[in-house]
Input
Amino acid sequence: MAVLALSNPVVQSYIVYSAILALKLISVSTMTAIARMTRGVFANPEDAKTLKGKVKFDDPVVERIRRAHLNDLENIPAFWVLGALYLTTGPVAAWATLLFRVYAVSRIVHTIVYALIPLPQPARGIAFGIPYIIKWYMGFQVAMYYISAV
Output
């Protein structure tokens, strides 16, 4: 098992890209709130009353951003878990950093092509598929590394 010291470049890389992904996740919540306010549509009557809008659950712009957010909530936590477990296998720093970087950039691109500037497929599929493969790769590496311990 690898030593997980904060001075380890792989650990530092994981921390940086995990923080970027956390900030990205927070920013999509903000995007939803901004879309609701600018469009005057809210999910709760008290918000609609206070902000002089209306209750509406099917605004296409808000729902697109919410779906992008849900997609992040379904995918980024798995990266955090698998990435942390992957650190324990002692991966090569350059390779692990590349995986973390490509994952983070792909998730950012996914949000852009899904919620901000919707592009036709396969843009969103590619931006989803690349980090999906990275998660599977890290999970497989962890399982193979520790399989003999079982």
